[in-house]
Amino acid sequence: MSKQESRYQYTASLMDEALLLLLEQKDFDAITVKEVCQKAGVNRSTFYLHYETMNDLLEETVAFINDRFKASLAAVPTEDPSRVILTSEKYLRPYLKFIKENMRAYRVIHQKDHLFNSQKTFESFYQSIFSPALTYFGVSEREKKYVFAFYTQGTVAIIGKWLESNCQDEIDLIVDLIMRHTLAYGRDAK
Predict the structure, then answer these.
(1) DSSP string covering 101-124, please?
(2) How confident is the model at residue 189 (pLDDT cuts 50, 70, 90)?
(3) Which of 21, 76, 98, 140 is the most exposed place for a label (fewest CB within 10 A)?
(4) Where do the CATH 1.10.10.60 domains begin and end in the chain?
(5) Is-contact 64 13, C-beta < 8 A?
(6) What angle do CA 110, 113, 116 make, to 5 degrees?
(7) Within 10 A of 107 (CB to CB), how many other CB atoms are there?
(8) What is the pTM of this model?
(9) SS3 of residue 126 by DSSP
(10) If pLDDT is split at 50, 70 and 90, which confidence band does 52 have?
(11) Strand, coil or helix: 74
């Protein structure tokens, strides 16, 4: 990566972080380019070198968070879907650790889910992890979408409550809650 590319990415990450900070305080539609630039410490012209609109920044911010998350999981070896109990502790622990380390961003994502299109992220996990595991556990194609919704919404609810308490409870407790309550079906299905 050239020095210019590195500087471009650094500036973009400043604006991503600025947007996340501002989203903690106000609705996306009320945030201006001027506010993002002030918070990021960049000129307005710099914003327009990177983006055409605020929606472009939002889209990049979502990608920024997702890329950081995927990079954090890179060290976790993948499993044969037939051996996964829908979501295993091996995946939950780094996921929750990443959420805790990025609590501010995830609190915003959880509160403003409609902006961040989290369902799209869940659907990518569905294709690679959940669908094969559900097949293994004998869940019919017809039922898969309902079972998947049950697991994701239950997990999101638990994580949402954890975020509300500033992730005060230890990760082990949250892993245990998710494994016992939202994933009971997978353990009992076969």
Answers:
(1) HTHHHHHHHHHTHHHHTHHHHHHH
(2) very low
(3) 140
(4) 3-53
(5) yes
(6) 110
(7) 19
(8) 0.69
(9) helix
(10) very high
(11) coil
